[in-house]
Amino acid sequence: MIGGTVLQNRLTKELPASFIQSIPQGTTIMYALIPELSTLPTQTRLEVQAAFAESLAVVWQVFACISGIGLVASLFMRGLPLHDVLDANWTMKNEKEVQKSTP
């Protein structure tokens, strides 16, 4: 969701205005247009490809920052000890034991 939003916003800024105006729904359906990019005039196709590359680079940077924040946050989390004693109430019972214990 975050990546899609960042990508759409960057594509709106990066794509040539003439190309965006030629698409009735704007940049919301850009993924559907990818197979048709090869039919565009060379100059327009190169501009659209560059816009996609720049937009995806920004998406990558955003996710790298989010990952970095998660890493830093994990460094401040307190460790919880693992239990080394088996709780008899949480053991698995086989079918025979279950049938014996039901009235």
Categorize the overall geometry.
Answer: elongated
Give the helix proportion (percent range).
Answer: 55-70%
Distance between the termini: 51 Å
Which structural class should the secondary elements be placed in? Answer: mainly alpha
Q: Give start-end ranges of low-pLDDT stretches.
A: none
Number of domains: 1
Question: What average pLDDT do the residues reach?
Answer: 82
The whole-angstrom Rg is 27 Å
Q: Major β-sheet, in short?
A: none
Percentage of β-strand residues: under 5%
- Count up the helices: 5
**Helix and strand element order:** HHHHH
How many E-type strands? 0
Describe the protein's architecture and organization.
- With 103 residues, the chain is mainly α.
- The chain has one domain (2-75).
- It is 61% helix and 0% strand.
- The protein has five helices and no strands.
- It has helices spanning 2-14, 17-21, 30-33, 42-75, 95-101.
- Helix 1 packs antiparallel against helix 4.
- The model has no long low-confidence stretch (mean pLDDT 82).
Q: What's a concise summary of this model?
A:
61% of the residues lie in helices and 0% in strands.
Q: How are the SSEs ordered, and which strands pair?
A:
Blueprint: H1 2-14, H2 17-21, H3 30-33, H4 42-75, H5 95-101
Helix pairs in contact: 1-4
Record keyword descriptors for this entry:
5 helices, mainly alpha, elongated, 103 residues
